[in-house]
Each structure stands twice: as structure tokens, then as C-alpha cells.
Amino acid sequence: MSGTKYEAVTAVLALLDLLAGEGSANRFEAVVEEARRQGVTGGDLRTVERIKRLALGIQARLERRQQRSASLATLVDTASDLASPHTVEDTLKIITRRARLLLGVDVSWVTLPAADDGALRLHSLDGHVTMLNTRLRLPEGTGLAAAVLAHRAPLWTSDYLTDDSFRHSAELDQWIGAEGLHAVLAVPLSRGTAFAGSLHVADRSVRHFSADEIALANMLAEIGGVALSRAVYLDETLAAMSALRDQLSRAEADLADARGLAKAQGALLSLVLDGCDPQLLVEEFHVRLGAPVLLCGPDGTTIAAAGDLSERGEEFARATKATGVLLDPAPALLQDGIWSVPVLAGSHHLGALYVQAGPALTGDTADLLRYVARVVAVLLSLQEGRGAAVEEQLRDELLEDLLISGPRPRDLLERRARRLGIGLDQPHVVVIARLEGGAQAHAVTRASTCARRLNGLQTTHNGDIVLLLPGTDPGTAARTVHDELSSLPGSPPTVSGSGPVSDPGAVLHGYRDAARCLDAMTALGATGTSASTHQLGFLGLLLSDQVDAERFIQGTIGAVLDYDEQRLTELMRTLDAYFDNGGSPTYAAEQLHVHPNTVARRLERIGELIGSDWQKPERALEIQLALRMSRIRRVLRERDEPGGDTAGDQDA
After folding, report:
1. What is the pLDDT of residue 77?
2. Helices marked H in 206-312 — which ranges?
3. Where are the alpha helices (DSSP H) in 84-115?
4. CATH code (residue 298)
5. Domain assignment of residue 8, given as a range
6. How many domains does the chain have?
7. Is residue 94 part of a domain?
8. CA 600 to chain CA centroid, nearest Å
9. Hey, is 492 helix, strand or coil?
10. Final residue of a domain: which of 500, 517, 543?
């Protein structure tokens, strides 16, 4: 074998040794140069160079296979890592970290849709060196991410900022420039059949991405999408479990509060049933609540207190009234952490409960406050009921004593009345109600309630219901009692009234007047109505136990008398002449020596003063009687005081 052949074979063997030993590319070139120095030329040298190229090609393929194997191993490790339970945030961090290491790039991140407006947001960046990415949002339809989601396929650019094939976002371009990024690859990140976002990798140099890199990124995105679906489901499950635990905790707390409230309610109700007084009840509430408690009447008077609020009842009552929530059963905040809750029995305001419980009430405290107010209302109602029964008996006895004839100590009657809150020296009217049928018991109860409401007295006397009510108008009082009793079953009552009376001894006379009026109404067939002795006119005057002519005259023609006295007119003379001449204005004018038109004007003025129906027979009879009584009274007065003013001859 010639020397050059031997050197060529030696070179080939050296190349094979380098291939087997995975030598570097420059060592392959050194073997060819050594063969050339040894004199290998021509076809032998070309053979050595060809074998060098084949060896380098084989070595490159082996390196790619090794790299692919390493990448696949990394993908398997990534899949194994993502198979473990992770939160969404941790899953995204694993995906971006493995993407950067797998592809050997500088930066990686994920973009996901924002929850509100269709924009995209950057998540879980890895490898970044600036903070411009904080809460970075991409408007809808901008950036490489929007193009990837629109095409549902991987996209890449060798130089992001100079690529005009997609819409740019100023915020993202600013961040890309600050990071010094150029080459960017984006692949869809899917969740099942839906595309949730995109996975991005980027280099700080201008370069192209190989098919192997794109395929690796795509496979990682598919694995990451599955893991992301699991993480989302896990987060939702954990959130649901946490919500269930919170609900369970609240339910257990509510149950404990309900049991505590039920226990407190039972204890407070037991105290009421055992006959405790308000002070003991308030002290028990004070112990259970651990706060000062004050119970006041409707006017702010202290009923019971436990703590340091006992001197502020009237202040709290004014504040409660100012809030306008006097009858609202819900606790109301007044001032300085003071809460007010009214004590109500139906619509009857019995007082208020005040508690210094701080600026806010818990639900169980508010419930306990409302319940205690109801328990206090029960207690006060029971006490009021017992007191009311005694007071009712005293009221009946007092009115019975006022209706008994014979001398009675005036001062004793007045003292008894004052203890019941009644002033017998003030004007009162007497009302009698007579019922037909079987509603007497219900009527007595209703009449008693009416008398109590009006601060009067009520009793049953000679089978009739008798009331003594404050006031000066017996007709109105009789009508009020009639309306109260008319709603009962059966025929409406017949009700009469008399008075007013302002002396304990005059009550009996008022009763007799009302009784005569009631008998007269029955005799006249006016049963089922109401009237007073004054409303019966001259008949009432005749029935009265004490004749009051002055009142009858004033009630009938008093307005005419006052008009003549104030204006020096002759309306009374005109009335006398009118009735003396059978109701003829012409003859009355002749008697008065005036023109008939003057009489007509005066009669018109009289109608304005005493009513347009004054010429009706019933009214005319009363007016004539009042005129005669007034004339007689004037004659008697002139006899005692001779001489008087003479009225002028003026037209009305």
C-alpha cells in the first residue's frame, strides 16, 4: 500500500473515532487538514472530506435525537409535575417555568382573557427583569395573543416590534421594548375543547423558531391546558368547600345563638309567670346582656333600672320621639351607643326599654332586645290589668255614690275623684244609654272602655248604663256613646245627655234630667237615637230638674239679642211684630211704622243669625216661647232697675 493511501485510511479511521467519541466539529476539520499535510490528494482527499461531512451529519442527527429525547423527558417530567394537585396560579407558574427551560428562551408568560371586557391579561411571567408588566392588560384584538386565539394555531415573529402582521398594543410594546425582547412564539393554551389563552416564549435576540421548538411548545401548551382545567376545577371545588364550611360554621353559630336565646327567653318568661316585678326582670336582662338597662314609662318616668342610665329616662324619651320610631318594634340607635325598643301591647304604648349596647347590635342581641320588650309588655299588661280591675271598681263605686240622694261629704267625693285623675269641679256631662235585647254585658264593657278613654266614669244604674264624661256639650257626648254602642249586635241604643255640671252634688240633678229626656225620647218614638235636653228645645226645658231659662233664651235667640245690643238695632221688636201679626211682614211694617222692605231686610238678617229654618213651625214655636220669656225677664229686670236705654230706629 502506498504512503498516501495509508494516510487516507488513517484519516478515515480518525474521523470514525471522533464520530464514535462525539468529538467537536473543529476536530473533524483538523483531521482533514492533517491528511492534506501528509500528502493525501486527489480522490483520496475528496473521500476523506466526504466522510467528514457524513460524520458531521450523523453527529448532528444524533445531537437532535438526544435533544428531542431530553425534551420529551422534560415534557414527561412536566406532565408528572402537573399531574399533582395545584392551584391555578401554581399551575401557570409551572407551565411558564418549564416552557422557558424546555426551549432555552429568555422569558415566558401566559395570557388569559380578563373577566369583564374581553381584554387579555398577562399572568405568571418567568425570566422578566422589569416591573412594567404589573397588571398589564391587552385591549381586545391586539397583540400576538389575539392573533393566536383568532387562528387557533401557533404563530411566531423573529422581531416583535418591527412585525406589522398583527395589531400592536402600546402598553405591551412598551414592555417588550423595556425587556429587550425580539423573537416571540405564541401557541394556544386550551382547556378541553375551548381555548383559554396562549403560552408565549421570547428571546432577547432576533432569530427564527424551528419546527421542533414550535412542536415542543405546542405539546407543552396541550399538557398545560389539561392541567389548567384540573386546577380550575380544583380551585372551584376548594372554593365551594370553603363556602360550605363557612355556611356550616355560621349555621352552628346561629344554632348556638338560637339555643342561647331560647334559654334566655325561657328564663325571662319564667320570671314573669312567677309574678316578678319589673326591677327583677330588668336586672336579669342586665346580667344576661352585660350592659346597662333602663325601663321607662311612656312619659320617660323610670320604672326599673340596672346600670348607670336611671337618671336619663326623660332625655331618652325625647330623643325617641324625635326619631319618629315610637311605635316601630325594631331597636333604634339614639346616641352614644344607646338603643331604644318600644314596649308595645298591640298598638298601646306602655313605655320603652333603653340599653347601652354599643354602636352596633349583633343579630342575637337585637332578637333578645325585641323579645325582652315583649316580655316586659306582658308583665306591664298583667300589672295594668290587675290595677285596671281595681280602678274600674273604684270608678263604678264613685259614680254610684254620686247618684245617691242625700247629703254626702263633698271633700271626700272630690278626693276620691282626684285619686282617679278626675276633677269634679270641672264641667262634666251625664249620659244615659238604654239597650233593648241581650247585648247588655257587651255594651257595659264597651261603655266602660269609652269612659276610660275619655277619662270619665261609668256604672250601671236602674238597668241603664250611666256615664259621667268631661265636657260641656251633652249632645256631642250622647252621640259619641251612641256611635260606640251601635256596632254591637241587636237594636241601636237610645242615648240621652244633660249638663254640664261642675259640682259633685249636681251630678244627681244631671242624671235626673238625662233620665227624663230618655223617657221623653221613648214616649215620642225616638228610640235608637241620641239627644240632649238642650237639643229637645223647650221640651228639654220643661223636663229639666233645674229650669235654666237663661240658657234656653240664649240658645234660641241669643244671637239676635247680642246683635241688637251691639248695633242698637230693632230685630227683637221686628220678631215680636212679625209673630203678633201672624207672620205677615206687611202688617208688621204697619205696626212698626216702617217700610215693608225694611222689615224684609231685618227678617233676612234674623235668618242669617239663627238659621234659615227659623220660620218652620217647630223652630217658630221655640222662638216665640223664648221671646215671651225674654220679655218677661226684661219686665222683671226693669222693675228692679227702672229706666233703660231705648234702642234706635236703625235698619239691620
Report:
1. 67
2. 211-273, 278-289
3. 88-103
4. 3.30.450.40
5. 3-69
6. 5
7. no
8. 68
9. coil
10. 543
